[in-house]
Automatic annotation (TrEMBL):
It is a multi-pass membrane protein. The complex comprises the extracytoplasmic solute receptor protein and the two transmembrane proteins. It comes from Halomonas campaniensis. This is TRAP transporter small permease protein. Residues 18-138 form the Tripartite ATP-independent periplasmic transporters DctQ component domain. GO terms for cellular component: plasma membrane. GO terms for molecular function: transmembrane transporter activity. It comes from the Bacteria. Part of the tripartite ATP-independent periplasmic (TRAP) transport system.
Length: 152
């Protein structure tokens, strides 16, 4: 359920990003000048899209990784490696959420140059994305991640 919601939100953000880019291109080459906010909005939207989708893609096994070691190890060691990878993912995601949240709050007094909003607003996509990654990792559990061979 949460995987579908996050991928749908990421799809909506990427659609909004395409619209902003097309508006900027239209404004620049047909109307004679693009507003500065289109480039900045596009940059923030692509970062938010990636952060929202990261957890769902991780649980699908869609991130690039080398799973050869898991196949070569005896089953008990492979299970131990899976637990280690799972715990490491949870730790990095939780740590990333904490650090990026603190950073987003620390720059609240500054505004973006194009949109004129507090820098905290676009930066909050980072802790949200890291929390979603931790959430999806918790839901997935310490099971082996899917590989390309699983889909063939």
């Amino acid at each position: 359920m949460s995987r579908t919601v996050t991928l749908t939100l990421a799809g909506a953000l990427i659609s909004l990003n395409v619209a902003a880019i097309l508006y900027g291109v239209f404004s620049r080459y047909i109307a004679g000048g693009a507003p500065i906010w289109t480039d900045e909005l596009s940059r923030f939207l692509i970062i938010a899209t990636v952060m929202l989708a990261a957890g769902a893609v991780w649980s699908e096994g869609g991130h690039m990784r080398v799973g050869l070691l898991e196949k070569l190890l005896p089953v008990p060691f492979a299970r131990l490696l899976n637990v280690y990878q799972w715990l490491l993912t949870l730790l990095i995601a939780a740590g990333g959420a904490w650090v990026s949240y603190r950073y987003a709050l620390s720059v609240s007094m500054f505004t973006t140059s194009g949109l004129g909003i507090s820098r905290t607003v676009p930066l909050l996509s980072l802790p949200v994305g890291f929390l979603l990654l931790a959430w999806h990792a918790l839901l997935y559990g310490p099971a082996p991640l899917k590989t390309v061979e699983d889909f063939l």
